[in-house]
Structure formats: C-alpha cells, structure tokens
Amino acid sequence: MSAAVQGGSRAAPSRRVASRAAAVAYRYGLLGVMAAMIVLFSLLRPAFATYPNALVVLQSVAVVGIVALGVTVSMTTGGFDLSAGACVGAVVMVTALTMVRFNLTGGTAIVAGLLTGLLVAGVNVLLTVVAKVPDLVATLGTLFLFQGLALIVTGGQSVAPGMTVDGAPAPGRYTEGFAWLGGGTIVSVPVPVVAFALLAAAVYVLLNHTRWGRALYAIGGNAEAARLAGIRVARYRALGYAVSGVCAAIAGILLSARLGRGDVGAGDPYLLQSVAAALIGFAVLGANRPNALGTVVGALFIGVMINGLTMLNAPYYAQTFVQGALLVGALVTSYTLRRIR
C-alpha cells in the first residue's frame, strides 16, 4: 500500500510538469514556431531580415488578411463563409469592367465593387438565415454561383485595357487614383498594408469591445441560449456575413488595383489561404475561437513561411504541403493540447 502511495506521489509532479508544458505550448507554441522560422530564414538568407523584405511580406499578406478578417467574423456566429474567394474574384472582374469596358471613374468602380460584396453577402444571408440552409452548403453554392457569373459576364476572358470589344478597342482604362490603391504608399507604407492594419483594428474593436461582438460570440457558443437571452440571432448572423462580404470586396478592390486588369479566377487562391489564416488564429495565445489578433498572426505566419521558402528557392508544390502541415499542427495545438491542459 505504501509503495503504491509513493508511486502515486512521484507521478503527481510529472503530471503537473506535463500539464504546465502543454499549457505553455497551447498559448505560445505558434508564436514560438513563427519566431523560429524568422530566425532560421534570416540565418539562411540574410536578405530576409531587412525592412524592404518585411514590407514585401506585409504587402503579400494584406489581401489574404483582409479576406481572413471577414471570414473570422462569419465564424464567430458558427458560420463559415466559403464564398469569400469567389467574392474577391467577382469584385476584381466588376471593377475592371466598370473602368475598362464602360469607361467610368475609379470611384464608380469602388462603389460597384462594394455593392458586389454586399450582393454576395445578401445571397448568403437569404440561404443561411432565411432558407435555413446549412452554412457550408449554402456558401459553397454561392461560391459556384458567383464564379460562374463572373465567367458568363466576361465570356471567360480577362478584362484588360486595350482589349477588343465588338471589334474595337475597349474605351476605358484603369484610372490613376484607382491604381494608387494597389501600388501607392502612405508614409512609405503600401496602401494595402495600411488598409489591412485599419481593418484589423476595426474588427478587433468590434469583436472584443462592443456589445455586437459579445452577441456574435454568444451566438457561436449556443445560438438557442442566445435567442432565449433576447439576442436577435438572425440579425447578427446577417451582420457576420455582411462584414465578410465587405471585407472580401475591399480585398478585391485592392487586388484589382494591384493587378491592373481583371483576371479570371483571380480570387481563387484566397479562399484556402484566408481560411487557413483564420483557423491558425485559433491557436494564438490559447484563444480557441475566432479572433482578429489570431487571424492577423495567422496571415503573417503564412506570409513569412511562403516568403522564406521562396527565398530558399523551394518549389511551389512544397509550399502548399508546408501550409497544410502547419494548419494541421495549429489545429492540433488548438484542440488536442487544450484537452491535455
């Protein structure tokens, strides 16, 4: 009996140590991996740890991060906006058509892009909130709907200045003011990076310091309990998708300005990367829920990894594999280590 007690007393400290280690890994593991990547890439390629390259990384993640912030807000209510990438692509095509095909101003193109984002959000709200279709199925349908619509409107062709329309050159072009959104700077910082920072701050305040944010999280935790507490669940779920649509529209406008043309499928890569950034954000500081700070860190995590692998001349398919491995690792950190702790 005494031997069993002594064995149990020796095992207790080891369990406490393991629990503390799991808690530290749960809260700071992702940040530690990111810091290790920065140190490793800096040692292997000294040019990585320079201010110009830092701006390159920030600019490369700005569009992804903006889309991911919108996806994050939709996830707070228990939803999941799979149409975000298609929304970005549709906005790119709409803004290009507005200026190149119809010869209208850059301001008009911005308004048209924002309205397109709200249209996508409206379709999602009709399907999920009104028709009660499950979010994943509904937003997947919206994804295909607007991908196909963008192809139909443009005939499956890219929209670029000088393109032929009805046998004659297109009358319009990208305006200088609109192009500045993609290539201009504010105090030597690229405009997309500034927009990303401002939107990240706005989403952080919305989710953490307003009653709307508390209501969104309450719905995501238990929609029925939130309804019984007097929260208008349908309205807040609609708000989540509206914010996601506007964020995707802003990202599409910035991407269109940077490309200087409307490429078919321009928004396709941004769905998986934005979802990865939002999910990786679950593991930041042990949040275990959608949050703006975690999403920003997740976007930077992906940007640092891709930039470093590119500087090391790693093939593109290896980058995709590493992204998937890091996402799996973040999910394990978020869910498995939480239970161990």
UniProtKB/TrEMBL annotation:
Transmembrane segment boundaries: 25-44, 56-75, 82-102, 108-129, 136-160, 180-207, 238-257, 269-285, 292-310, 316-337
Membrane topology field: Multi-pass membrane protein
The keyword Cell membrane belongs to this UniProt entry's keyword annotation: yes
Name of this chain's protein: ABC transporter permease
Source organism per UniProt: Nonomuraea mangrovi
Protein localization: Cell membrane
Keyword Transmembrane: yes
Main location as per UniProt: membrane
Highest rank taxon of the organism: Bacteria
Keyword terms of this UniProt record: Cell inner membrane, Cell membrane, Membrane, Transmembrane, Transmembrane helix, Transport
